[in-house]
Every structure is written in structure tokens, then in C-alpha cells.
Amino acid sequence: MFGKELVQNAGFIMIPPQDLDDAAVSSAYIHMADYGHATVLISVGDTIGATFTVTFTQATSAAAAGEQALAYTKAWASGQVLKIDGVSGTFTVGETVTATLTAEVYEVGPDFLVVRNLTGGTTWTDNATLTGGTSGATALVNGTGEQEDIMVPLYTAPSSTITIPTVTFKNYLFEIDAENMDAADDYDWFQVVLSDPGGATLASGLVILTNPRHRNMPMPGAIGVQKMAATL
Description:
This protein is an all-beta fold. It has strands at 11-19, 25-26, 30-31, 35-48, 52-59, 68-69, 74-78, 80-88, 96-98, 102-108, 112-119, 129-132, 138-141, 151-153, 161-164, 170-177, 189-194, 201-212. The termini are far apart. The mean pLDDT is 89.
């Protein structure tokens, strides 16, 4: 079976939907001692007034003792298929392309690009001229863009922080393995922090804990007595 399969022993921790403006929003500190893997999904809504960052930290307790950055290498973002024609030159993976919008190229096909939109939304202007920022290649946009339900890996490898662009209705996915954490120094708690974008920005998150180390019902709590709540 391909994809992710959830089981009864998974854990689910919310970052409640809210406006990030005026203050950073943090998840509860999450205990990974009973799980081998965490998937973090961040969704942005119909308002995203400015860019914001998603940062991961780790600590030795729910009270953030010894807090430090948590590095990871696996991140994905919502992509889009952009049909093109009248191509001149060769577009390259990783470059930015610009027409009415700007996007990062993930895959190049004979009559399409798979892109991650970076500015201005996801509705392209049909027949607009598309230009590659590095290659200098050009093409005409054929349609307005489609297949916004696909996810593509980030071209630039993340470390512990990435920037979310001002594009509405998009998902960002991060995979955290227990091995990413500094277990030798007893770091088995982690937190997700969404920065203050300085403008109205609707977003939410969900942390899914999988690969349980044992099977109980219920599983031992991963956030203890902490409560899930908006932080505004």
C-alpha cells in the first residue's frame, strides 16, 4: 500500500485555526518518547497578509527545558500543474518562473511544469508569457493552472525553519523522525512555532504521531495536562 496508513494508536494534536497576526503561535510541547514518527501539517486559509515562518524546537521537558532548534530534512508544499505551449529554451528544476504570478519549478515536462506558487495566488492568466528566472526560457501559459491537490518536496532543503509564502489555501507538510531529536541528551519533546507575520493570516496545524512503540488504549498522553487552545 502506498501513502500513509493511520492506526488506532496514532496521536493527534491540534494547532487551532486562528489569525497569526500580533503574536507567534506555538503548539503544545509534544512528547515523542512513545512514538517513532510525527507528521506536521500546516494549512493556510483565505487570508495570508504576509509571509511567516514555521520553526521546530526540541526540549527535555514540556516546560521547554534546554530548548534548542530541531533540524529536519523532509518537507513538502502544495504544488500545481501549469500547462504551457510555445516553449522557447529549456526551463530548469529549482528556478523561479514569472508571469502574472511567481513560482518555483519542481518538474519540467514537454508541455507542462509542476510548480510551487510563491506569490500572488494560484490563478494564472491564460496566454500570459512565462519567463524562467535562471534559464531565460519562455512559454505561453495554457490555462490558469490545475491540480492544486498535489504535494511536492521543497527544492531547498530545510533545516529547522522554513518561510511560508503569501499564497492562500495551501498545505505544508513536515516529517519528523524520533532520530532527528537529540535523544542522547534526553531531548524527547518538540514544539511547532508559527511566527507573527505582521498582517492578518489565517492558519492552522495538525500533528499526527505514528509508529507507536507499544499498543495501549488509550496511548500514554503526548501533551500531558497541557490544553490545546488558540494563543491570541
